[in-house]
Amino acid sequence: MGYADVCSKTYVPYSWMRGDRWVMKHFPRHSGKLSRSELENAPKVIIYGHSLGGWATLTVARKLEQRGIPVELTVQIASVGITDHTVPRNVKTAANFYTNDIVGNLIGTKHVHVRDKNATQFLENKNVPHTSHLSITRDHEIAELIIGTVRSLREPPPATTDTALYPYCY
Q1: Among 63, 45, 56, 48, which residue's Cα sits nearest to residue 6?
Q2: C-alpha 94: how far from its chain's center?
Q3: In degrees rounded to 5, what are phi and psi of residue 168?
Q4: Residue 71 pLDDT exceeds 90
Q5: Separation between Cα atoms, residue 107 and residue 125, nearest integer Å
């Protein structure tokens, strides 16, 4: 997106633990839950995944919940998995996009729900018509949701774009 203060990393779903470790290295490394002060100075987390990555999305969110780390947004895209139906309490906003192609009909996750409606705003379980398991990733509504959330979380741009000012981007 061209923002020096926005970091992202892509992982294949079967190595979700590497993604979890990458997120965790951006937070204080002590055991136990983080303090309010630590959370105020911590990065904002958005997790999204396609296919098995949808399953990994909520798996990582659950791991972050154990440390008391909030997740701003989770997005499951044509999610495939057996444990990806319940969004944990630490997620502020969640959405699930699916397709009715052969993969979606056989093993896709069409109905996700939140564990706590007071903690998580669930946008929708949305069928994206005229897409397949692969082409759904190019849907403009999904991209707008993720990019719009990033933009809404950013503070006004700093006077410089020196990446040394952003200790979380590594």
Answers
A1: 45
A2: 8
A3: -85, -10
A4: yes
A5: 15
